[in-house]
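Exercise 7. Given the encoded structure of a 997-residue chain, write a plausible sequence.
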């Protein structure tokens, strides 16, 4: 049997060998045939640049911009389809000549996702620092004008607050808390390798009435032009930027051209925006009840002649909701984006334009227009040794607004007179009120800016391992804003003509350039990968400002011409220069793809310090251990990825004004012999030097079940010292303080949690969930001599820098009806300095977001919930009983002895005890409330229209919304901004279409 079996087996092998050889001869005899196809993602979007290769062959091609490809192959060949961030496929050719291929995103391929770390690229798998990232797809799904708005709720450790709903308004951003007492806390912004100043050129006095704080320069960027935003947080990620990275780094990368056939894409959307919620204010009957009760409590009869709302001058029956009248309009916005893309494997080119227009919910004329042009050219030589990348980004803004945010006018009495008379003119009601429409229709604010960012990056491979690179950048920002106060804003009874018209105009410019030569070395010895980087930075920035007022015009028609004014006053006229230079280096070692060491260092020089302290050194070390690469974890299927990483380093801070170490003089405002005099404004301090920030982080990254569940948990601690603050000086010096370094220490510590899970992944259905949570604590650890410093009333050791010191409310005295407060020092009286000891913080207790992305066939749905735990000031500012409307909550007040009430007795202000108590209440624990919220921040729904035309390659319609629902116990209009006289962030809806030819 054995002999027979052996013979049969041998015969079988001979037959198989003959069959295989014959088949190969037959296939070899067959000629190659042309095959073609398309490659799309799970949402049926074409993917350009996909590699299509024949297995075990050097033959291959790439998909064009429509995701199409063609090549010649034999039936015996196998296609290998691969693209960064997607699962690689292998498909046998056989007799098939047409392929329709769909790639699935590969969340398990952590090493495939390239992350911009500034001077170098890394991957999610091998990064040793803390880097958060938002992609173009996430940005484009939000109808925003400022890139920072697209980041809210999406990044752990990054807290962003919108300061106003007015177009062109600003945003506050904090990356892992506040580090500095006296210097700036803004992060460093880098756009395509070019530093972009986050400080505003606008004059805060000029824009404060309509746009609070500063105008964000990032408005001068178009979100539709952005490919990705990375935020560097810990020392390992930021130390290579030295002093500039003390408060984090925001890296903005614009879109680049793709290889393939020439294509034209068009994106259009239109939408509306409105105030999401109004404060529940008193109606006329409630308001008049409050007013009459206040006069009764004060014992005032009859009503004063100026009490027009209750003495019969105004009628009792009007019931105007001034919130709806002044803020109740629907703002409209439109946006058009056109982009042309073409290129080959060696040269790629992109050019695009974007236009957005919108207005406000205010009455009166308003118009915000932003237009941008983006172009990018990439070229790689045929031998792949020389590469060049040129980018050009230009944005123009024009913003016309009412001079005042009308939110501040919504508390006028509800029985105020009609706005217009019967003949259509403004109603002044016998000179009994200041008609708010006089300002709306006459006063105005205008902001105009031009922003240019140009970058050139050139590199040449000296050898296979050694590459020389140069980065050149230029940024120019010019702006002008002005306030117009024409005489027509006055009541005609005042008899004021154009001689009383006033114009304030601020013109400013900022020009900066940067040159950065670099040398990169990358090589591999057996299991060791080595990457070395050395470079230098030379940067210069110049600013000029001219701020002037003018009045005495012959006519209101010539207010734009300051030469027509009889009086002009120069309020500010200055120029400053900032110079910066540095040397930097990086050493990255990767042993066996498991053990990683990253060392970075930078030697910084800043013109903002004296010659003896102009230079400082900063550096960091980052370690990572991919422990799932060990044999212990090889034969298990639960834990698919695990990495421990740690970093420690020192960064600096020079975010202060220029020349602050020098003696400085200013115009005294007095003249002698027809000459303007000078007065000393600042003392010389040659020891003025850098703040330092020591950063520590420990993190654990884990992936489960082939990384379908991926969790990152990180603990960080940042300690900032050598603070740049004002040290008190004796009055005999003529100065109250000296700008110097103080050994005060500030600590930020916290926990960050990030989760991503693929809940479902099938051919037609995919569901992904993301979640992030941040818990942060800011604390002033030490401040020598705090009690005698200028910060004695604003800082407390052991508390946050962002604190507020309050009186502690103990309720309303049931007998007197007056607020009572805790006497902290027990001296029998309540004082401003000794009894405001109730400490609260404006810092958020926690913040984060929960997002979901669901795709089913041609449908895509994504939505994000943002949540914040915080406290804010309450709604009560003006004294209840005065000629100002109040929230209906004030109805729970004291009326007679024995009453137990939340709020004290009404008063017109004549009761001095009640007036004093109210002023304390405004700054007490009773008026500092929980403003935590959960907000449906963004919803995006789209449908991909199957493209049947050869010309139209892709089409999509979409519906998106922003700030849709807010769940909160806060009684104001918006918990994000708290009680404010500023317009809250608006609720937005938009409908759009995307097509590609």
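Solution.
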């Amino acid at each position: 049997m054995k002999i027979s079996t052996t013979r049969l087996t041998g015969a079988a092998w001979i037959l198989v060998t003959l069959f295989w050889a014959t088949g190969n001869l037959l296939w070899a005899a067959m000629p190659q045939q042309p095959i073609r196809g398309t490659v799309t993602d799970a949402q049926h979007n074409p993917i350009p640049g996909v590699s299509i290769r024949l297995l075990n062959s050097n033959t291959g091609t790439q998909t064009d911009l429509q995701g199409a490809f063609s090549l010649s192959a034999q039936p015996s060949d196998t296609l290998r389809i691969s693209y960064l961030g997607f699962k690689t496929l292998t498909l046998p050719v056989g007799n098939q000549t047409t392929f329709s291929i769909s790639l699935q995103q590969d969340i398990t391929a952590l090493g495939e996702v390239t992350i911009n770390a500034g001077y170098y690229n890394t991957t999610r798998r091998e990064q040793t620092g803390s880097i958060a990232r938002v992609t173009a797809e996430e940005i484009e799904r939000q109808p925003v004008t400022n890139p920072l708005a697209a980041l809210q709720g999406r990044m752990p450790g990054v807290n962003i607050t919108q300061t106003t709903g007015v177009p062109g308004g600003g945003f506050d951003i904090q990356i892992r808390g506040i580090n500095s007492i006296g210097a700036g806390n803004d992060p460093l912004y880098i756009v395509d390798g070019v530093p972009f100043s986050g400080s505003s050129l606008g004059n805060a006095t000029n824009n404060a009435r309509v746009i609070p704080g500063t105008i964000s320069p990032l408005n001068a960027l178009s979100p539709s032009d952005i490919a990705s935003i990375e935020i560097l947080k810990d020392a390992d990620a930021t130390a290579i930027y030295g002093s500039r990275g003390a408060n984090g780094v925001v890296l903005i990368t614009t879109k680049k051209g793709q290889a393939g056939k020439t294509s034209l894409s068009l994106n259009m959307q239109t939408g509306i925006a409105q105030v999401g919620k109004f404060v529940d204010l008193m109606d006329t009957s409630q308001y008049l009840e409050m007013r009459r009760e206040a006069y009764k409590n004060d014992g005032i009869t009859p009503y004063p002649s100026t009490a027009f709302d209750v003495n019969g001058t105004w009628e009792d029956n009007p019931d105007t909701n001034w919130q709806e009248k002044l803020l109740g309009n629907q703002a409209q916005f439109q946006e058009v984006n056109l982009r042309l893309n073409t290129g080959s494997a060696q040269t790629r080119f992109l050019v695009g334009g974007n236009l957005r227009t919108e207005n406000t919910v205010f009455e009166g004329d308003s118009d915000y227009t932003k237009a941008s042009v983006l172009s990018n050219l990439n070229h790689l030589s045929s031998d792949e040794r020389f590469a060049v990348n040129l980018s050009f980004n230009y944005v123009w803004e024009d913003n016309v607004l009412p001079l005042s945010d009308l939110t501040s006018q919504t508390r006028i009495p509800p029985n105020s007179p009609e706005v217009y008379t019967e003949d259509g003119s403004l109603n002044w009601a016998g000179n009994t009120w200041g008609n708010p429409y006089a300002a709306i229709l006459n006063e105005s604010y205008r902001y105009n800016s031009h922003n240019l960012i140009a970058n050139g990056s050139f590199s040449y491979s000296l050898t296979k391992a050694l590459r020389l690179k140069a980065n050149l950048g230029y940024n120019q920002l010019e702006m002008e804003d002005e306030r117009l106060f024409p005489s027509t804003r006055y009541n005609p009874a005042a008899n004021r003509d154009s001689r009383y018209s006033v114009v304030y105009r601020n013109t400013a410019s900022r020009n900066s350039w940067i040159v950065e030569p670099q040398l990169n070395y990358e090589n591999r010895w057996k299991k060791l990968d080595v990457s070395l980087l050395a470079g230098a930075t030379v940067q210069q920035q110049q600013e000029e400002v001219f701020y002037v007022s003018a009045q005495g015009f012959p006519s209101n028609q010539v207010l734009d011409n300051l030469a027509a004014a009889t009086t002009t006053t120069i309020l500010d006229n200055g120029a400053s220069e900032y110079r910066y230079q540095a040397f930097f280096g990086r050493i990255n070692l990767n042993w066996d793809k498991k053990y990683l060491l990253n060392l970075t260092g930078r030697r910084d020089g800043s013109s903002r310090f004296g010659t003896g302290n102009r230079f400082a050194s900063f550096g960091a070390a980052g370690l990572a251990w991919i422990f799932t690469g060990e044999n212990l974890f090889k034969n298990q299927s639960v834990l698919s990825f695990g990495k421990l990483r740690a970093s420690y380093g020192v960064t600096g801070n020079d975010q202060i004004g220029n020349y602050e170490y020098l003696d400085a003089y200013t115009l005294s405002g007095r003249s002698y012999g027809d000459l303007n005099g000078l007065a000393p404004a600042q003392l010389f301090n040659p020891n003025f030097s850098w703040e330092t920030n020591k950063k520590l982080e420990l993190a654990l990254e884990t992936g489960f079940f082939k990384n379908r569940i991926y969790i990152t948990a990180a603990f960080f601690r940042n300690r900032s010292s050598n603070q740049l603050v004002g040290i008190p000086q004796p009055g005999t010096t003529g100065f109250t303080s000296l700008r110097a370094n103080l050994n005060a220490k500030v600590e930020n510590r916290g926990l960050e949690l990030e989760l991503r899970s693929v809940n479902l992944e099938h051919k037609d259905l995919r569901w992904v969930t993301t979640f992030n949570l941040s818990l942060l604590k800011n604390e002033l650890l030490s401040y020598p001599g705090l009690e005698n410093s200028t910060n004695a009333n604003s800082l407390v050791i052991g508390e946050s820098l962002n604190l507020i010191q309050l009186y502690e409310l103990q309720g309303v005295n049931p007998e007197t009806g007056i607020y009572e407060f805790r006497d902290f020092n027990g001296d029998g009286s309540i004082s401003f300095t000794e009894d405001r000891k109730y400490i609260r913080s404006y810092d958020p207790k926690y913040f984060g977001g929960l997002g979901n992305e669901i795709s089913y066939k041609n449908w895509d749905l994504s939505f994000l919930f943002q949540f914040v735990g915080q406290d804010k000031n309450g709604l009560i500012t003006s004294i209840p009983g005065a000629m100002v409307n109040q929230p209906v909550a004030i109805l729970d007040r004291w009326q007679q002895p024995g009453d137990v009430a939340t709020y004290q007795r009404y008063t017109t202000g004549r009761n001095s005890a009640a007036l004093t108590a109210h002023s304390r209440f405004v700054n007490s624990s009773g008026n500092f409330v929980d403003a935590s919220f959960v907000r449906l921040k963004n919803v995006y729904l789209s449908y991909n229209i199957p493209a049947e035309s050869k010309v139209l390659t892709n089409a999509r319609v979409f519906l998106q919304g922003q700030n849709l629902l807010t769940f909160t116990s806060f009684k104001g209009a918006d918990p994000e901004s708290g009680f404010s006289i500023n317009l809250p962030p608006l609720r937005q809806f938009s409908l759009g279409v995307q097509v590609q030819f």
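Remark. The two ends are 72 Å apart (CA to CA). Students should compare their own answers with the one above.
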